[in-house]
Design brief:
With 568 residues, this protein is α/β, with parallel strands linked by helices. The chain has helices spanning 2-29, 53-69, 78-87, 98-108, 150-161, 195-212, 240-249, 258-270, 295-304, 323-331, 410-418, 432-441, 472-484, 526-531, 533-538; strands at residues 34-38, 42-43, 73-75, 112-121, 124-133, 138-147, 179-186, 217-224, 234-237, 279-286, 307-313, 336-338, 340-346, 352-358, 361-365, 394-395, 424-425, 429-430, 454-459, 464-469, 488-496, 504-510, 547-558. Strand 19 (454-459) and strand 20 form a beta hairpin.
Length: 568
Amino acid sequence: MNTAGSLKSRFDQMRSSAAVCCIVFFLAAGTARAEIAVIPYKVNTPSADFPESTGRDYARLVALSSLLAKEKIEITSPREIDIDLERMKLDPEGQITGEDLDLLGRTRRIEYFLLGSLSRVKGRYRSESVLYSVRDGKVVARSREEADDLFALAGREVGEALSLFRNRERPRAPYGGGMDILFLVDLSYAMNRDWSAVKNAITGLTATLVDTRRMDTRIYLVPFADRIAHPAVSVSANSITSVRNELDRLKPAGGAGADSFARSLRYAIGTARWRPDADKLMIIISNSGFASRMAEQYGNRARKKGITIHTISLGSVPGEKSEVLDRLAQIGGGTHAHAAYHQKLYAPGGESVEVYMENGRFFTSRFPDAGWKRGLYQSGGPRGYYGKPKSFLQEIIYSDRKDAATPYTMGNAYTRNTMERIINSEPLESNVDLLLERLVKKARGRDRVRSDAGRALCTDGPVSFWVTAPDPDVMAYFIRAKREGAVVSLGVTVRKEAGSPYGISLMPVATGISADYIPESVMVRLGDLARRGEYYRTHGLSRPPVWFVRVKVDRTERSRGDEDIRGQ
């Protein structure tokens, strides 16, 4: 028995050593794949609208988000993990020890476990998670994230908790020399109410460029305020984590005037290390109004260095206060935009009213409209046109200047101007994230143009969509699905397309993912996409948002881009 035990011990040691070698080789050379199991999250203080089942659904969102990120990891089937937890009598809402994970890991040969807890704090979701290594027998990473919804939370969780496994060897797309973006950001106290949205927008844009578009990206952060003794710059090269950490380090304080702005602007243009072969964008975000006689000089200097200047005025900087930012954008060859704001208010009877604000004008609507994020005014006018509001809005005209509103006082201003009492409100929203995406799309570094391999007519019964196959592999998937007559789960992103019957097109981005990984919260019907295309284009899991539809393929058409072999 002792001999057998000794042999078994030596065998286990050899197997453990082999596993260690495999993991080290993966981390060093990027050629192996680590297997990770996501345990259902524990729900802190569950309630009727935040049940314990949320933890299980969220774990599937994290698993699915990991698959969509296409990092060098393998995600254990959530169904298999549920079966194992039941077999071992482990309750995610109770205690799970390292010994439990060691036993489960050795049984399944799983290398890592991701597990944690979920909370709701003032309407926002918070996750606190750990990454446990079976090989090391300890926690090797911790993450604490917050977001307005579970989709955004899952994306941040994957970006942070699983950053150890980021596929650093994956080649980046050939976008010339890449893109350098310098954010010149107002860090005065006036930014306090917008700072969270600005941070999330910059981080989200970084994720889109680095992970989705695979662009060679450098992000520069230069703040300005009178509390900053001298301009400071931080550089993050292809790192979402570095950008978020640096933004978290910055705290709005003090004021912002012409001197501090000019000092940081001069530093950004003349001292920041712009790469000569990269697209160069400077995006100025400010919630402070000030005068400056140097705008033309700095704008011309930036233009000579090939730097395009875009500017964004936030809620405290309406048209009459944003002349400097508008002038800089004109000279710098860029765009000046005013942020739009939205808030839902509640009357004593429970009925809701939507209020909006952009460029100093105050609007209301009895019904929400997802299109507000594209701006509150109709397009088509001259530069800086802010004349005609969109049809779903009704403007509130101030009877007195004391009744005027800012985005941060819309609830009180609504009561003063309408005499309707408001007892509660939801958090203020802005469209800063969409503005940043639009400004960056104007740069040369666009997605590679690909020749489509064909298209497929996908249907869920009531509604059908022609879906373009971007490459031969997806086209082969469509042809196989049609031949087998199977209902498939297809992951798509929604794109705006004016010429299509529903005003949108669907781009397939995920095929062959088992239904086990796809929670109901990301499943939609084609009719939903047709009716609420703008919502599904801007909300959801991953960036750009991915939604799953269960469809059958009725017809397929290969691309006719190839020449006829007969020469005709």
